[in-house]
Amino acid sequence: MSEWQWIAEGRWTDTAGRHVPGSLTSASVTDLVEVIADQIDKIIPDVVLTVGPDGLTGHPDHMLIHQAVVSAAAPREVPIFGS
After folding, report:
1. What confidence tens digit (pLDDT) does each residue in 15-42 have?
2. First-to-last C-alpha distance (Å) of the chain
3. Which residues lie closer than 8 Å to 55 by C-beta, 6 or more apart?
């Protein structure tokens, strides 16, 4: 089975990495971990794909997502690719 899920759609706005209220860049890793962990628990994936710690391009949102995905998936023993 393959599936795509947006995390907390509408909760954060893509602001191209600018640190402004409501942007993903301004979100706390803890908040993101909680939302991602909820999705992992709901979907129960075989693997989780993410970007590497450099965010692929150094993009602040991507680097933050990497941190949150690794933190959410590791205790659930889900393999992570892209880390």
Report:
1. 877 888 888 888 999 999 999 999 999 9
2. 22
3. 61, 62, 63, 64, 65, 66
